[in-house]
Fold:
Amino acid sequence: MQNEPVTTLFQQEELNTKERILDAAIDLISRKGFDAMSIREIAREVGIRESSIYNHFKSKDEILDTIIDYFIMELSRSDLGEMPMDALLAQYGPEGFMNMGGRAYLESINRPRVIKIWRIISIEIYRNDKVRKFFKTTMVETPVKVWEQTFRRMMDLGYIVECDTRVLAQEFFYYLVYLLFDYFVISFNDTTYCTFTEKMSDDMSGHIKFIFDKISVKKVQ
Amino acid sequence: MQNEPVTTLFQQEELNTKERILDAAIDLISRKGFDAMSIREIAREVGIRESSIYNHFKSKDEILDTIIDYFIMELSRSDLGEMPMDALLAQYGPEGFMNMGGRAYLESINRPRVIKIWRIISIEIYRNDKVRKFFKTTMVETPVKVWEQTFRRMMDLGYIVECDTRVLAQEFFYYLVYLLFDYFVISFNDTTYCTFTEKMSDDMSGHIKFIFDKISVKKVQ
DNA sequence: GTCTATAAGTGGATAGAC
DNA sequence: GTCTATCCACTTATAGAC
Structure:
């Protein structure tokens, strides 16, 4: 099992013990939760003794911290950041822009190297305050603010009707957070990872159509 | 702490040991999660020895099962069930009806005897399959179906414009599930229990206004 | 129904040989 | 860096006195 030619999670060039420990930990925690997983299980999976793990990590907690730090770093790396909003709006229109934003959101989750960590985040969010704050700030509050500005711009450019941009941003984005919650918790089972994109993609399309149909400027004319 | 004149959770008439065990367990699990809580802690809180607990419950798991069963029973008891929909619609109008439904939803959560168990449900949903299935079916799928029928009826009676009632029900209700998730997980902290109604009530009002503004029949005439 | 005592196991973590 | 050996705190759970 540990002999398969896998691209390692943390460094491409070498499949060293530290990385194999992290891979095993990610798999175990994503399936059982951090509390229920033990150092012994990791050691068994990797094929070394428990004590050897302490050559790579000071404590059990440090393993989880490393995973979470990696995840946070990996996610902030894919930050859409400075998109040429006006140009994209002119090219694809407001609905197309929303679809692109939603699609980018889905794709940032559905990456093989981090999808198991998403499950870990969903599990540990209630217990680990660093996870909770990261999620609250980076995965909810910041995107809502960004979408609020985006809708404000759309409004200024006459693409959408006048309305409360804050409420609009929440209506748009909270649904996406719900989809995440549904996927990784409510409807989660072991085969979930396969059927990711299709269902969420459909739900999101219906959602965007619903929202856009409401704010579209064509409707009132 | 265990001497306060508290109304017990499971039977009003007597404050016996079994109920005190359940009270302590609910408090501990809601703060730490089931895995991290131990029988010893319950015993310490109640003021008895660990072994005595096994006179009331066969195992640690049975304590959680009892709490969850109580919760499920308590919630199905408050099922709105057969409401005289047409009469209420005529009296309060579609927006008033939605507000009543949303308000009833909030109030069913914000009851002192079950609010800590809501936190337990939020924590254990990833680990306990009974909890997960209950939530998925009773707290998401069934309400969405009920609201779908409700919107269908509103449409037939000419209160709202023609649209996809399934999408509409999801747009309306998923937001409420998100509010739950936000309250009990994302934004949760120890003082959370106090500020429950106001924030969620505001968010819900904005949400209902947004949805209703879209589907209101007045707009297109 | 509660107690003492204890079983029987698991957990994280360390010391020191190699 | 990995191994053997071990520590010890803590866990759920049971047996049997009172």
Residues 38-40, 50-51, 54, 59-60 of chain A lie near DNA strand C (CB under 10 Å from a C1'). The longest helix of chain A spans residues 129-156. Chain A has nine helices and no strands. Chain A has two domains: 10-57, 83-220.
